[in-house]
Amino acid sequence: MRALGLMSGTSADGIDAVLVEFKGDPSKPTWKILNTGSYAYPSSIREKIIQVGQGLKINSKDWLELAEEITELNAFAARNCDPDSTAEVVGCHGQTLFHRSVNKSKRGGSLQILLGPLLANILNQIVIYDFRSKDIASGGHGAPLVALVDESLLGRLYGWRGVLNLGGIANLTIIPPKTGIDKTSECLGWDCGPANSLIDLAIKESTNSSLMFDENGSLASRGIPKLEIIKTWLRDPFFHIEPPRSTGREQFGTEDLYKRKKQLGDISKEDLLSTLTTFTASIISQDLDNLFRLKNIRLIELLVAGGGTRNLFLMSQLQKQCCGVHIRPINEIGIPSQFREALVFATLSWWHYLGKKVNPKYITGANKPILYGVRVDP
User: Which of 11, 138, 150, 246 has the lowest CB atom count within 10 Å?
Assistant: First the structure.
């Protein structure tokens, strides 16, 4: 069966599309990527998405028109990737504009903007969308959903295997080994904290929007990270919440960047970017150390996906700080790094079509198995 996955992450740089053929056992399928495509958001749309996500108030007409435009852009990306409409189902994540973590006194919340029925009718295909709300209604964080699929698509090794996504936010999947005393363990997953969100905001601000990201990490590589301040940042209570946990731009966005810049004082943009990039790597390293300290789990391999894989300084910092772990890009095992999340939503839409429920307890914290997404027929 063919499924098309559409995804735009917290970086809001555009829509990734992937057409996949699935066969066999849904829990351990044989799968093949048939085509991929990417559509960059027009700068005006990206700017509005980021501003609204950071608290910009817009009227009802603007909300509707933004939802329509995002839906139409997803339809355009879908047609480019699958021009003959061969997919039997289309899984579309929509664009996240707000995410609220679960805490003791308040349920979680997550807002993805997309008009599912409109997309289904434009494409004349079955669409699965709204993947997070059932999870949240069942007491979960609604994130990170990618961790629900990783084990099925990647499989197990002879030791603990990790998958790290470096989008706007970093998240980890921890896959148990296939033999030994840990083979009956459950797959784990959580949001770590900022990956590219603070870095991208910082470079946009420091270059008056002439640059949107630090290409190859070249500016960060010319700076000197402020290691003592990073140590204080790592003591933030969020980084020591035992998973499940989730976060977004609401926590690690513009206000957070201003607070950290004030603590750093008057430094060059190179030193600022070097500090923020090293901070991201340090968060991952600390999470892996906590994983060993709390659960006695030590990874033998860490596969890295997302836009952060192109940041060579970030990747070198990960290698430096995550000692004893074999770190490599996920594309080395046949998954194009940029399209890993779109592949996940293609898989979740296929599972929905088949009626396959998933137990997310150790990843999102939801309290029952869930059939992810809402189906709309054209």
Answer: 138
May I ask the CATH class of domain 2-143+340-376? alpha beta
Name the strand (E) or helix (H) holding 242.
Answer: none
Give the pLDDT band (50/70/90) at residue 260. very high
Cα–Cα distance, 16 to 38 (Å, whole number): 4
Architecture of the domain spanning 147-333: 2-Layer Sandwich (3.30)
> pLDDT band at residue 208, thresholds of 50, 70 and 90?
confident
The SS3 assignment for 175 reads strand
Fill in the DSSP letter of residue 156: -
**Exposed, middle or buried by CB within 10 Å (0-12, 13-18, 19+), for 317?**
buried
Query: How much is the pTM?
Result: 0.95
CA 219 to chain centre: 24
Residue 254 CA to residue 7 CA, distance in Å, equals: 23
For the chain, which residues make up each domain, given as ranges? 2-143+340-376, 147-333
